[in-house]
Give the backbone structure.
Amino acid sequence: MRVAVVVFPGTNCEHDVVHALKLVGREPKLVFHRETDLAGFDAVVLPGGFAHGDYLRTGAIARFSPVMGPVAEMAAAGMPVVGICNGFQILCEAGLLPGAMVANRDLAFICKPVHLRVEQTRSSLTAGVESGTVLRIPLNSYEGNYVADPATLDQLEADGQVLLRYCDEAGTVSEAANPNGSSRSIAGIANAAGNVAGLMPHPERAVEDILGGTDGIPLLEAMAVFAPQQAVHL
Amino acid sequence: MKFRIDIRRKEGLSDPEGVTAQKSLHNLGYTEVISTHFGRTIYLEMSDGDTAAATAEVEAMCRQLLANPVIEDFEIEVVG
């Protein structure tokens, strides 16, 4: 599976993502944000960082980058499109995922491992992972607080689009285990089809024991598990 | 032609800056404060022309870039 890893000016996690995708057997390739053609790629990842300096709002400028044209086309075609941290924010600003991210509840930059509970498995981030699995993945963000209006949140829940929630080590979801104040402890969501998915924590930083854990691997493997399932549906 | 654009978080959506400021105000003794919300103001100048057309254009700018309509409301005012 050939995966385009998009580099905006200010993206800073692209090499980690490439390294991690190689570890799970994908063929990642860095693609600059000015690229207008992603033909030949089977999936795309928008990595973390500060695209275009996050000026105005996180992801606000990035969504106008030329590469977002073909990214939207891949999203519409049902191909895996995954946003990590800043990439998640960009997918929201681009309207490819609902809601938005605002400043963390306590107005502090959070950089620590957090626990996530897998809620839904029909997505390019969670396919092949058992529902209820608790993962330990680093979170690294200031604007990680997911917000959407109550109707949108209800619809996300009803349609099974909430992929990951912040929880404690035992998998219990609570305000105390919600690091950044995200609505309903949401850490990751997908579109209705499940192919476009985003999460705030960084799975690519949890792929080797020397990094403190390997819980990010199943999330990065998911796009290859999900894509063939989609093909059957199509 | 000058415009003033006020952008605010939609009512009911999380506003951590507002909450934090309000807690601080209460700590300072300003306990009569019942709500605090942060927003931002953009001042924009356009070349002179039809006011209605220019206002419509500023509104388009807000929807497309200056505000995030998913979580923010905005108000446009002609100020000069």
